[in-house]
Amino acid sequence: MESGMEEIPVKVAVRIRPLLSKEVLHNHQVCVRLVPNTQQIIIGKDRAFTFDFVFGKNSTQEEVYTVCIKPLLVSLTEGYNATVFAYGQTGSGKTYTIGGGHIASVAEDEKGIIPRAIQELFQHISENRNIDFHVKVSYIEVYKEELRDLLELETSVKELHIREDEKGNTGRISALKFGVLCFSCVPKLFLASPEKAYSLLTLEIFRI
Ligand code: ADP
Ligand code: MG
């Protein structure tokens, strides 16, 4: 790092998904590749882009979790906040990677980030019986400009607003329900999630 440059707390990973069988069937071509031993990808013939992490088409869910998420989970249990979100065009693999689908029906090694993070969080809690943790959860869907509370589907869309604090920072969502999270209630939580939604799971963890 150059002197005087501050470390940027936002890190960006790119994951290339394999062609789907219907794409192979329609003779679609791969247009993006990794440059070996770098954090670069090349789109088309020669357009190179550099990221903090790159994952190729054969990368596993475990690899993505271990490299990008596990360090954040360690910090989380030490009291630091962390946010992970997936973005990209429809069909690029966000839901698959984040693991926000119906997790109860997904094979163990296909599980994405959310179920892995929750499992590890509760494992950490059970291994630290001398510390009392309290885990609060909220689960929202952002679709176009609207927010929906997936823990309280009756809350009308109009009641949910992102509020700014007095300094103009965007912060809390009004009227959002928080639940107390226990490990066994997690699969039920995900059944509330519609198939095609952008959803945001927030965990707040307190050491008491
Ligand atoms: P998005 O949520 O971005 O719209 P999806 O996660 O639904 O995209 O992915 C689109 C399709 O590609 C799904 O059928 C999904 O199972 C598949 N897919 C995505 N990423 C991968 C991957 N890394 N390996 C295998 N299949 C994948
Ligand atoms: Mg999706």
**What is the number of E strands?**
11
Specify the structural class.
Answer: alpha+beta
* Distance between the amino and carboxyl termini: 38 Å
Per DSSP, the total helix count is 5
Strand content: 15-25%
Q: What is bound: which ligands? A: adenosine-5'-diphosphate, magnesium ion
Largest sheet: 4 strands, antiparallel
Order of helices and strands: EHEEEEHHHEEEEEHE
Structure, explained:
The chain has five helices and eleven strands. It has helices at residues 21-25, 61-77, 94-98, 113-127, 186-191, and strands at residues 13-15, 32-34, 40-43, 47-50, 53-55, 133-143, 146-149, 162-164, 170-173, 179-180, 198-207. Strand 2 (32-34) and strand 3 (40-43) form a beta hairpin. Strands 6, 7, 10 and 11 form a four-stranded antiparallel beta sheet that branches. Helix 2 (61-77) crosses helix 4 (113-127). It is 23% helix and 25% strand. The longest helix has 17 residues, at 61-77. It is globular. With 208 residues, it is an alpha+beta fold. The structure holds adenosine-5'-diphosphate and magnesium ion. Residues 17-18, 20, 88, 90-96 line the site of adenosine-5'-diphosphate. Magnesium ion (MG) binds at residues 94-95. Its main location: cytoplasm. Belongs to the TRAFAC class myosin-kinesin ATPase superfamily. Kinesin family. This is Kinesin motor domain-containing protein. Keywords: ATP-binding, Cytoplasm, Cytoskeleton, Motor protein, Nucleotide-binding. InterPro entries: Kinesin-like_fam, Kinesin_motor_dom, Kinesin_motor_dom_sf, P-loop_NTPase.
